[in-house]
Design brief:
It is a single chain. The protein is an alpha/beta fold. β27 and β28 form a beta hairpin. It contains 16 helices and 30 strands. The strands form six sheets. Strands 6-5-4-3-2-1-22 form a seven-stranded mixed sheet. α2 packs across α4, α3 packs antiparallel against α4 and α15 packs across α16.
Length: 656
């Protein structure tokens, strides 16, 4: 398997990871970097091809959620670079993604005057290519590549994606949160045991304190600032932390009876709340239950923001987008409020290096907004992490749930990845990697073989395991619950088609019935008076193919043990009846009715009866002595395995 980060390799932002599995290539996320305003904002698509033929190189694009660092480059890639293949995302992501893209386009093109950026029509045409991906639904991209989405928390519609092609599989997490919050549930995935888990590591070295303590600290800081007449600016992205903190403020204002105005930057957030109402089933159980009586996103104390309010006197609280202070309302208001020491800036999430938010958090007292603007930072700066990313504990829990063979770290700083890498390798004992952007990572994958286990092998293996547990208990030891069953048998591989390999007990793999053949050109005798070599069957019909050339045949046999008294009672036979003959007659009658194959009865020299079906299947009563149970002996050639399965079903019906 090959993994190449085109973005988010030892970095946060511009998430884009190429994975080649089973001969298919999937692009996971297609984001932009919020710290750049030139061509570096997009992933380096020239790594894929310089000819522009991306559609033949990539089988599918999967977008995990609507944040711009995961979807921002999508219209550029599809409409300006020429990718025309399928794009997969969840319904909430499909609904919200174009709103955020259009909002960013307006700021970039209409306010900043950039040229060559994607247009509104590009966004619309891009979204027409999207195929919805519902939670826990398996979607087949083609005959070989399958995708399945799992709930990721983080923001509305966020999903982790499991992809499998042939014998190789991968889980790409995108951004996720293992801790439920006030409006979303916790991320969860089945124990899919993929070859690789590719996980974000934004907070890879952080273990967060109590959520209640963080919420209390946040509310106390906001309250203290407005009491002294200051203004509180809370930069946040329109969906996710904004709703989380608004619910928190709404509840607190209600409880404390506060009259200080609280605002939400208008337009985008109003649309966002509309989609939260539409996709209420993606929220947590508490929100769903309260939605019956009252929509928790219809805020009583929080009103839409007007740009004219920025110079109003008196205290106020403003939730403004975006969350990193790099453009938009939050940056405009920051420039106005930053010089006043009575005011407060609360940064509730992560800020990418190079953004104004990152500069302020680093302690800079004079910040260059652009080449013409400097701002004195006298405002009280607080960093309270309400990020919806998994912390170190959550990342370890996700790896434990998925149980992968390898782990790849992306979407994090290199120093944090290095620490987390050693921790993962120490706790789980699996290889862990953290490739840089453009670095090709090739991972050796082992091959799992799905096989049908015979009843006989399972029963014998189960009996041995039960015996082992009894011996442990007899010695006073605790026997753990059976979660894995060791078996020892013969694996007969399939033919590469629909027939699965079979795992058999050695006694079922009847080596005595495998003919050893020699064709006419392999030292076989040609004269009629000559004897065939020992161990050779030269004229066996089963050993000849259509062209007359000798070919080996593998024959299986199995014993079907039955209870004489129970079968006789069910068939209404008395003690003097020939039970074996009656059972074979009943099987022959059912086979004649249910099977399209010819059914033949024959008797041997010892007057033993045999039923023959097809060209190789034989059913006979096994002679018994005083120490053995009565049984039927069934044998068949490998080529008629499917027919033999039907025959065994009929035998089970007769024997009960």
């Amino acid at each position: 398997m090959k993994v190449v980060p085109l973005g988010a390799g030892q970095d946060v932002g511009r998430s884009c990871v190429l994975v080649t599995l089973g001969g298919k290539t999937v692009m996971f996320d297609c984001g932009m970097h919020m710290g750049y305003n030139d061509e570096r904002r997009f992933p380096d698509f020239n790594y894929i091809t310089t000819t522009g033929d991306f559609t033949s190189r990539i089988d599918a694009v999967v977008i995990t959620h609507f944040h711009l660092d995961h979807c921002g480059a999508l219209p550029h890639f599809t409409e300006q670079r020429g990718y025309h293949g399928p794009i997969y995302m969840t319904p909430p992501t499909k609904a919200i993604c174009p709103i955020l893209l259009e909002d960013y386009r307006k700021i970039t093109v209409e306010r900043k005057g950039e040229t060559g950026f994607f247009t509104s029509q590009h966004i619309k045409d891009c979204m027409k290519k999207v195929v919805p991906l519902h939670l826990h639904e398996t979607v087949w991209v083609d005959d070989e590549l399958e995708l399945r989405a799992y709930y990721a928390g983080h923001v509305l519609g966020a999903a982790m994606v499991y992809a499998r092609c042939g014998n190789e599989s991968v889980v790409y997490t995108g951004d996720y949160n293992m801790t439920p919050d006030r409006h979303l549930g916790a991320a969860w995935i089945e124990k899919v045991r993929p070859d690789v888990v590719i996980t974000e590591t934004t907070y890879g070295t952080t273990i967060r304190d109590s959520k209640r303590a963080r919420e209390r600290d946040f509310l106390e800081k906001v309250h203290s600032c407005v009491l002294r007449g200051g203004k509180v600016l809370i930069p946040c992205f329109a969906l996710g932390r904004a709703q989380e903190l608004c619910i928190l403020i709404e509840t607190y204002w209600e409880r404390m009876g506060l009259k200080v105005p609280v605002y939400f930057s208008a337009g985008l957030t109003e649309k966002a709340n509309r989609y939260y109402k539409l996709f209420i089933n993606w929220t947590n159980q508490k929100i769903k239950e309260s939605f019956v009586d009252r929509n928790p996103f219809d805020f009583k104390y929080i009103k839409p923001w007007n740009r004219d309010y920025v110079d109003l006197p008196g205290p106020m609280v403003l939730f403004a987008t975006p969350g990193m202070l790099h453009i938009g309302t939050s940056l405009e208001v920051f420039k106005k409020w930053a010089p006043d020491e009575r005011n407060m800036l609360i940064m509730p999430g992560y800020c990418v290096a190079g953004t104004v938010g990152a500069k302020v958090l680093s302690g800079m007292k004079v910040v260059d907004i652009d080449q013409y603007t400097q701002v004195n930072v006298n405002i009280d700066v607080q960093n309270l992490s309400f990020s919806a990313h998994a912390d170190a504990k959550g990342i370890m829990e996700l790896i434990r749930q998925a149980s992968p063979r390898n782990v790849v770290l992306v979407h994090g700083e290199k120093s944090r990845m290095t620490y987390l890498k050693s921790k993962i390798m120490g706790e789980f004992g699996c290889p862990c990697y953290h490739p840089a952007n453009g670095e090709l990572l090739e991972i050796e994958t082992s091959q799992d073989i799905k096989a049908l286990m015979s009843d006989q092998l399972f029963q014998e293996s189960w009996a041995k395991e039960q015996q082992r547990r009894q011996e442990l208990q007899a010695d006073g030891q605790v026997a753990e619950p059976i979660t894995q069953l060791p078996v020892r048998g013969v694996l007969l591989l399939g033919d590469g088609g629909k027939r699965l390999p079979r795992l058999l007990d050695p006694s079922e793999f009847d080596l005595d019935q495998v003919p050893v053949v020699s064709g006419p050109n392999v030292n076989a005798p040609t004269g009629g008076d000559q004897q065939a070599p020992a161990g050779a069957i030269a004229e066996s019909p089963a050993a000849m193919d259509e062209s007359g050339t000798a070919s080996d045949t593998v024959v299986f046999s199995t014993r079907k043990v039955f209870d004489e008294a129970a079968v006789a009672k069910r068939m209404g036979l008395d003690a003097s009846a020939d039970l074996s003959h009656a059972i074979l007659a009943a099987i022959s009658e059912l086979l004649t009715i249910d099977s399209e194959q010819q059914v033949r009865d024959s008797k041997g020299a010892d007057r033993s009866q045999t039923i023959e079906v097809g060209s190789s299947i034989k059913i006979s009563a096994q002679p018994t002595d005083n120490d053995s149970l009565p049984a039927l002996l069934v044998s068949w050639a490998w080529e008629e395995e499917e027919l033999a399965t039907q025959v065994l079903v009929i035998i089970n019906r007769v024997l009960g």
